[in-house]
């Protein structure tokens, strides 16, 4: 008997995410629609921690690829069975009403974002991000990009660059059609701001985007963003 095609393929690129992966997968599979009608694909880029062991404790498919978020997401997409592909960061949480809000007829889109910290400064940060992405029709990966499979393939998948692959694919997609923005927010981690400092992180992110817009090689930007080779 042929297995039923999943309504949605949720693809999670992972690299040394043991600190958050257990909680994230538990929260994801606690959503009945996800547990019953979606497939979850964890694509590991060579983790040296317990990420693979944690993923093995859940009903998800585990794939391996070379390190690099674009490479991992493309590997997951190539193996996915769903007609719609959703790319979820390991430290993010989907809204509980996803089954009611997900636009299955959409070519592509992303979510409004809410950071998982109640400090007022994070309301300002997320508001700026949401306003920018709505105006430019370009979203970061932490806003959980999703694509109809054939549309994703027509874009050539994520470009094989080490940073800004999310920006690049959005720019390609928006030339063809407008994105659908899901108003129920995805909960994204504020850890980069905590680890590096709020204002330093804001300055870094805007500087990297400007440099990319000016044509700086993404490999160079990756070395700036991950000075320790992350």
- Derived structural class: alpha/beta
Distance between the termini: 44 Å
Can you identify the CATH class?
Answer: Alpha Beta
Mean pLDDT: 93
Ranges where pLDDT stays below 50 over 5 or more residues in a row are none
Descriptive account of the structure:
This protein is of the alpha/beta class and 230 residues long. The protein has one domain: Spore Coat Polysaccharide Biosynthesis Protein SpsA, Chain A, CATH 3.90.550.10. The chain is 44% helix and 18% strand. The chain has eleven helices and seven strands. The chain has helices at residues 18-29, 32-37, 51-56, 69-79, 98-101, 120-136, 149-154, 165-174, 191-196, 198-213, 218-225; strands at 8-14, 38-44, 61-64, 84-87, 108-115, 146-148, 180-188. The protein has a seven-stranded mixed sheet with strand order 3-2-1-4-6-5-7. Strand 2 (38-44), helix 3 (51-56) and strand 3 (61-64) form a beta-alpha-beta unit. Helix 10 (198-213) runs antiparallel to helix 11 (218-225). The longest helix is centred in the middle third of the chain and has 17 residues, at 120-136. The radius of gyration is 17 Å and the shape is globular. It starts with 7 loop residues before the first strand and ends in a 5-residue tail after the last helix. The model has no long low-confidence stretch (mean pLDDT 93).
Give a short overview:
The chain has 230 residues and is of the alpha/beta class. It is built from eleven helices and seven strands. It has helices at residues 18-29, 32-37, 51-56, 69-79, 98-101, 120-136, 149-154, 165-174, 191-196, 198-213, 218-225, and strands spanning 8-14, 38-44, 61-64, 84-87, 108-115, 146-148, 180-188.
